Amino acid sequence: MNSGLLEKYCKRIKKWSKLFLPQQNLRYYPPKFVLRDPVLEGVYAAVSSGLQVAVIVVNVSNLRELSLQLERNQLEEYKRELKKGFKKVFEQTTYSKDLLVVHDYYSDGLTLFVKINDDKQSVVHIENLLRIFMHKLEKWMLLKYPHFDLSFEIGYMFIEKEHYTTQEAIYNAQQQAVAMAEKRIQSRYIEMLLEIRDIIQKRDISLLAQPIIDLATKQIKAWEVLTRGPKNTSLESPLQLFSVARQANLIYDLELLVLEKAFQLIMKVGCCEEIFINFTPITLGNKRFIPALEKLLKRYEEIDPKKLILEVTERDSIEGLRFFHENIKELRRKGFRIAVDDTGAGYASLHTISEIMPDIIKIDRSVIQDIDTNSVKESMLKGLILIAKETGSLVVAEGIEKEAEAEVLSRNQVDLAQGYYYARPGTLEKERVAF
Length: 435
Prior knowledge:
Elements: H1 3-17, H2 23-27, H3 37-48, E1 52-60, H4 63-67, H5 72-91, E2 99-103, E3 109-116, H6 122-144, E4 152-158, H7 166-182, H8 188-202, E5 206-214, E6 219-228, H9 238-247, H10 251-269, E7 274-279, H11 281-284, H12 289-299, E8 308-313, H13 324-333, E9 337-343, H14 347-356, E10 360-363, H15 365-368, H16 375-391, E11 394-397, H17 403-411, E12 416-417, H18 428-434
Parallel strand pairs: 6-7, 7-8, 8-9, 9-10, 10-11, 11-12
Antiparallel strand pairs: 1-3, 1-4, 2-3, 5-6, 5-12
Helix pairs in contact: 5-6, 10-12
């Protein structure tokens, strides 16, 4: 075939392909691996609308053992039924609306793409989702296949699109999730485990700060400390950093490092306002937390516990944490105040509020977003304010991005607010001067 004829056929193929493939698929062709259209379309649409997308890999770890018990055709049929079951079980959970697509990249299991509307507590969201999903899956397996004792490996990773095309971002996240699930020797899991340990050992994190505004005076009342990993690395994003730390069982070590870094920042800047710091119940309920905190307070004697508010991420369950309530009481005795974060994002927040009677209730941005055009959301806000009055708690509204939203908060006499409308996260020094 001569070059002219070849070029003619190539143009014709390209022309016809546009009838079947979305434009964003063509932009990233050829891919590193074959993606069905729904995967790229779903992820592209979710990311473009500002949502986070997590890649969850669920593998059957002992499928090879099962293959010894079945004929080849029986095994293939069993795997097909298993994949159908995975999707069916997920659709029965409260997170079914978040499922973008299920894809069988690997015959040993499935890859699920899940959208998340809250980038701040996405790690906890995924953990809760997996806990519910696996519980239902195990029950389904027991009923469907009582003679088979299957075990599963799970790993997840968030799609980080900032420095990649959509195609590359999906590939990278999926490969990392596979490694986290399989936890193979010399795998990407081991690399990430060593990486997160190295970050903690070298204390290689940085802190940003976002102001919290007193709506009555329009002055900065406090700052929320936000964490970033090493610059220009895969773990710079707090989503990646905390998800890897959590799966590597190093979340306590990472959060304790954040606390000490916050102490250092307060002393360096001479910050006089209050400081909010996020903690999972895993850390606050750790029996080592209070002794470690006491050592830090002795080392940084100028730190006033009365200026510090420890935020409890409400989407993490406090059930079964033996030392949690005891630690909360001790923290209060020392002068620290307790806040419940993300109130309104789920039922768990109301339970946590009733359990610990927080000093501050932070209302999730899902309630605040577009509250100026949604009367139901304003009614929810009023209800949460009534709860705060009953518990004697201050109210902080998160995620304000528009003046109209801020006006609704003022009208309802919300105490404090934070969000991009007031200032984006930045270094504490710069924000103190610029705001």
